[in-house]
Amino acid sequence: MKRRLRAPFFWLKSLSLVEVCVPAHLAIYPLLMANRFSTVAGEVHVLSPNESFAELGRRLNALAAQGESSVGLSGGSTPKAFYAWAVAHQALSPASLKNLHWHVSDERCVPLASDNSNFGHAERGLLNPLKVPAHCRFPWPVHLPPSEAAAAYERAWQERSPQKTFDLCVLGLGDDSHIASLWPQCPWIGKKADARFVATEWPGRGWRLTISELGLSQCASIVVLVNGKAKARALKSIIQDEYNPSLHPGQILRAYAPNVTWLVDAEAASLL
Fold first, then answer.
1. What is the predicted pLDDT for the residue at 141?
2. What is the CATH number for 245?
3. Burial 66-84 (b: 16+ CB within 10 A, else e)
4. Which of 43, 65, 189, 207 sits in a 20 to 30 Å window from 7, CA-based?
5. Which residues contact 4 (CB under 8 A, 6 or more apart)?
6. Distance between the two ends of the chain, CA-based, in angstroms?
């Protein structure tokens, strides 16, 4: 008999959620009344999209206040919406623009100018409008063949940060439960890799460059943004279904649950 995990909802009332490094106008979002509960895949916060964006902005600013730090962004519609929100609300502190080093956790093998480039979207939607300096931007070397690009990116990481990947990795979630470019039946899932970044050919979608399970394991913190009813089944499968990461790649995050936070809206959480 399969055991279903049902997460309890409760109201969190804690002043610690709105602390330093948050512009005064962000306090309008009622973060104090967030539904929050623990699961096998990490802590889930049920928030409106604007509340999720405010919380992510708070975390980025708090990280930047500690000094130089690395951030891995993601592709997809929800991260793009965050870029627009962050620019419109001037949500990132001056320290964030100076101290954060910006990357993407996965990338398509296309030029940065392409509308399909994850880093290209981050540049056009967030980094360029905020005038983030060039030395804080770290795109994948997409001019190289996929395997060479992944190897070059890995070497660069070994030189800069031998023991750690991102200080904060921001992920989205596909409706097929993929994270980064670790897709259902991806050959890298469950495979012992000695690299934090790898190349993989996604059937029907072409070559991708992506963070690996090893890379995820070495992230200090992971935040997953999930919005919309179309993602409800995927989120449920990651948290409540039998463990089968080849079928539900997001279940990989169960291994790193203490470092994982899910910022999800009510529609995405509707099946929990």
1. 98
2. 3.40.50.1360
3. eeebbbbbbbbebbbbbbe
4. 189
5. 240
6. 19
Task: Report how far apart, in Å, the C-alpha atoms of 150 and of each of 71, 83, 106, 140, 163 are.
Answer: 18, 26, 10, 8, 18
Paired residues of 102 in beta bridges: 71, 137
Domain membership of residue 15 (yes or no) is no
Q: What's this model's pTM, rounded to 2 decimal places?
A: 0.86
Cα separation, 5 vs 2, in Å, equals 10
Give the residue carrying structure tokens 């979207």: 121
Q: Is residue 134 part of a domain?
A: yes
In a domain, 218, yes or no: yes
Tell me how crowded residue 201 is: count the other CB atoms within 10 A of its CB.
Answer: 14
Q: How far is CA 9 from CA 45, 139, 176, 217, 239, in A?
A: 10, 39, 25, 28, 15
For residue 163, the enclosing domain spans: 38-264
The predicted structure's pLDDT at residue 191: 87
DSSP, collapsed to helix, strand or coil, labels residue 28 as helix
Q: Which two tokens stand for residue 134?
A: 């060039």
Band of the pLDDT at 193, cuts 50, 70, 90? confident
With beta carbons less than 8 A apart as the criterion, state whether 29 and 51 touch.
yes
Question: Using one digit for the tens of pLDDT, what is the confidence trace for 33-75?
Answer: 448 999 999 999 999 999 999 999 999 999 999 999 999 999 9
Tokens of 35: 């539904």
Evaluate whether residue 74 is within a structural domain. Answer: yes
The letter for the amino acid at 170 is: V
Give dist(CA 233, CA 30) in Å, integer: 27
What are the DSSP calls for 169-229, one per residue? Answer: EEE---TT--BTTB-TT-TTTT---S-SEEEEEETTTEEEEEE-HHHHHT-S-EEEEE-SG
Distance of alpha carbon 91 from alpha carbon 86, whole angstroms: 5
